[in-house]
Amino acid sequence: MSDVRAQQRPEGASDAGPRWVTDGGLETDLIFHHGVDLPGFAAYPLLDSVDGRALLTDYYAGYARVSELAGANLLLETPTWRANPDWVVSLGGSPADVRRINLDSIVYLAGVAEMLAPSGRVLVSGSIGPRGDGYLASERGTAEEFADYHSSQIGAFAEGGADRVTAYTLTTVAEAVGVVLAARAQGVDVGVSFTVETDGTLPDGTPLGVAVDALWGQAAPDGFLVNCAHPHHIAEALSDDSWTTRVTGLRVNASRQSHAELDAAEVLDEGDLPDLVSEHERLARQLPNLDVVGGCCGTDARHVAALWGLAT
């Protein structure tokens, strides 16, 4: 674990508290605050237009401001959570488009990082989503099959010079292992993030601690996060805390609603901000190696700023 933490800690930083700001709920922010239609919950098509890129750049700039105010470093994630082969094809593209989209996203975001030029360090990470829905553990396969599946997206990130790749909202151990294997084959650092239900288990029913131990037993990542769940839901998994030192990042939902409720919602639940902050602080105290803090569904720069102790 010391090697993982050393890779993530900024130069000259103390070991007290997280040091990397990352963004919030990109897709929910675009849909509900900017009125953007995102078929399939996919943000990557915005890269194909000048206006779309301008909107994305403004979005990332908000988190660069948070990092400056917090005196922290900045982890920028590409808008490619849905840019894997199945989703690209379902949205009208072809398998050949996967490389173009993901390579372009890294080049674009590296340019954004240079333009924003925050005073802290900046890492550009290629964002990967699950092969399936993200809320349902419906996609089955072996780790080797998932490694083969995700290799095209990860290969494009590696080709573009990504500092790392991170897979979010994973629902099974097999897919997490596959992502790590694919990243190792491409020679890039990799983070993986499970999501949990309101009871702290993965969507397939696996307790989070069991999933973490199984992941480390097969293919340990360089960073490990939990995302797309309220801090209270994640805390439900902490009855056995033997694995909590492995957690290096949190990207939480604003809402206490379940995945099923969020999926059916027609209005955005931005949550109770004081409750979110207090629950996040309580959870963070139990995660001694927490180093990356951002948000997920329902959050925007206001929520992330508050999680960093900044006035909003």
What does this structure look like?
- The protein has 312 residues and is α/β, with parallel strands linked by helices.
- It has one domain: Homocysteine-binding-like domain (TIM Barrel).
- It has twelve helices and eight strands.
- The chain is globular, with a radius of gyration of 17 Å.
- It starts with a helix and ends in a 5-residue tail after the last helix.
- The model is unreliable at 1-14 (pLDDT under 50).
Topology readout:
Elements: H1 2-8, E1 20-21, H2 26-34, H3 50-70, E2 73-77, H4 85-90, H5 97-116, E3 122-128, H6 143-160, E4 164-170, H7 173-186, E5 189-194, H8 208-218, E6 223-227, H9 231-235, E7 249-252, H10 259-264, H11 273-284, E8 292-295, H12 301-307
Parallel strand pairs: 1-2, 1-8, 2-3, 3-4, 4-5, 5-6, 6-7, 7-8
Organism: Knoellia sinensis KCTC 19936
Protein name: Homocysteine methyltransferase
Keywords: Metal-binding, Methyltransferase, Transferase, Zinc
Structural class: alpha/beta
CATH architecture term: Alpha-Beta Barrel
Tell me the helix content.
Answer: 40-55%
Cα-based radius of gyration, to the nearest Å: 17 Å
CATH topology, anyone? Answer: TIM Barrel
Give the count of structural domains: 1
Q: Tell me the name of the CATH homologous superfamily.
A: Homocysteine-binding-like domain
Distance between the termini: 34 Å
Concise synopsis of the structure shown:
This protein has a single domain (17-307), classed as Homocysteine-binding-like domain (TIM Barrel), CATH 3.20.20. 44% of the residues lie in helices and 13% in strands.
